[in-house]
Amino acid sequence: MKEEYIEYCRTHEVPIFMQPWWLDAVCCEGKEWRIILSKKNGEIVCALPYLYRKKWGIDIGMQLQFTQLINASFTDDFPSLIDNEKLAWFFQNISADDKNADIFKNESFVVKNRFTYRINDLKTTDIMDIYARFSQNKKRQIDKAENAEMRLDETLSTEELYQFHKATLKQRRAKIFYSKKLFCTMCNAAIDHEQGKILAARSKEGDLLAAVLLVLDKQFCYYLVPAFDKEKAKSGASAWLTFEAIKFAKNHSNIFDFEGSMIGAIAKNYKQFGSVMCTYYRIEKVYNPLLRKVLNLHKFLKHKF
């Protein structure tokens, strides 16, 4: 089935997060991706890749790392195709439309709304019209960076981005939760397929102040991994680099996706770039009765305390 899907992707346009090379890259550390296919008259009409994990002695189908969602419109038979995988637990993020929601709700899947922030119609909107939607605060930050002669660096390596990202997380007393191998394999695969770009902001003196990894296809450009030096936050580098990322995206994709956040402060920051909140779905079904009880207890205790 996987070989059939790989062959299909050679002759059809497929979103980046469904590309076999992307799936291989984010599973580079011995993980396994699987594919569910819906067919009509022997032809593939819909596909859903997922990460297969054996955990706690049970089979789980889950979201792939670095993969926000699967952009697809699903066929009516898809819930039963997932059921046929014989998993104990399945969960995945998918694009939002009323048909997708109804298909899965009608077959006992739990469907929850999640949110991302997007700038739509990039290719048909003048860049200064996009800039006009920015908050006054973001405009001031960008002006400050430009007055300080901020410069764009497009030569930062994947290894340098990883180390910078790791250091900026440490500033916030947080730890990076993926390995250098996974991060660099994913980055390099996207860049090698001309669907990834690293942009960095440097001071006039050459200090690295902010960086971001963008991954993209013709429809979406994802603001996948941003990082900025907290100690230089007043430089305006983060806002300035985000504007540069939007400029870059405009030449390649139709939608700039900030990769979402359910965290209020991050969402507020994204909205200041004139983005609009958009919904996508998390679908979930727990097949194992004992696991269902454990998960329900966990949710109860989490909300209780």
CATH homology superfamily of the largest domain: Gcn5-related N-acetyltransferase (GNAT)
Radius of gyration: 21 Å
Helix content: 25-40%
Total separate domains: 2
Annotated CATH topology of the largest domain: Aminopeptidase
> Widest sheet: strand order?
1-2-3-4-11-5-10-9-8-7-6
Query: How many strands, what sense, and barrel or not for the largest sheet?
Result: 11 strands, mixed
Folded structure, characterized:
The protein is an alpha+beta fold. 37% of the residues lie in helices and 28% in strands. Strand 2 (43-55) and strand 3 (58-62) form a beta hairpin. The chain is globular.
Quickly list its features.
37% helix; 305 residues; eleven-stranded mixed beta sheet; alpha+beta; Aminopeptidase; globular; 11 helices
Secondary structure elements and their pairing?
Elements: H1 2-11, H2 20-26, E1 32-40, E2 43-55, E3 58-62, H3 78-83, E4 89-95, H4 98-105, E5 110-119, H5 127-132, H6 136-147, E6 151-153, H7 158-171, H8 180-192, E7 196-202, E8 208-216, E9 220-228, H9 237-250, E10 255-257, H10 264-271, E11 276-286, H11 289-304
Parallel strand pairs: 3-4, 9-10
Antiparallel strand pairs: 1-2, 2-3, 4-11, 5-10, 5-11, 6-7, 7-8, 8-9
